[in-house]
Amino acid sequence: MENTISNTFNWPIRIYYEDTDSGGVVYYANYLKYMERARTEWLRSYDVQQDQLREQFGVIFAVRHVEIDYLLPAKFNDEIVVTATLNKKGKASITFEQTVARDFEGDEKLLAKAKIKIACLDAGTFKPAPIPTVILEKLIGE
Fold first, then answer.
1. Active site residue 21
2. Which residue out of 21, 69, 78, 122 is catalytically annotated?
3. Of 74, 23, 53, whose CA–CA distance to 118 is shortest?
């Protein structure tokens, strides 16, 4: 059984030239990179490191499923905010709702939104593994 949770983390990013195509628009796959970074920084905010998961607990987190809607383009030099909201947890997975938004002169525009399911895997076999209790306690206070 999965539990519903609400815990939003914000990660600001500036769009660099390298993020864009020849038209100055962010390449679509980069949104997934920004979301990955936001989830990684969310973990860090709880003092959980990806290498620590592997070394101490023998598990890794891997993307299992992604649903993404691209609504408006981000462009070169934009300042955006990527959110990561943990909204469900299972025994061996957690699901995030994530957004990418631009605030332009007080008018926030939603650029992309996604639902991303992360699986906890045994680092050696890549088979599903329970999320370590001590990690869940840090992340969601169980």
1. yes
2. 21
3. 53
Q: Among candidates 140, 50, 63, 48, which has minimal Cα distance to 98?
A: 63
Sequential pLDDT tens for the chain (142 residues): 344 445 789 999 999 999 999 899 999 999 999 999 999 999 999 999 999 999 999 999 999 999 999 999 999 999 999 999 998 989 999 999 999 999 766 678 999 999 999 999 999 999 999 999 989 888 876 5
Domains and their CATH numbers in the chain = 3-140 (3.10.129.10)
CA-CA distance, 69 to 35, in Å (whole number)?
A: 13
Strands 3-4 and 8-14: unpaired
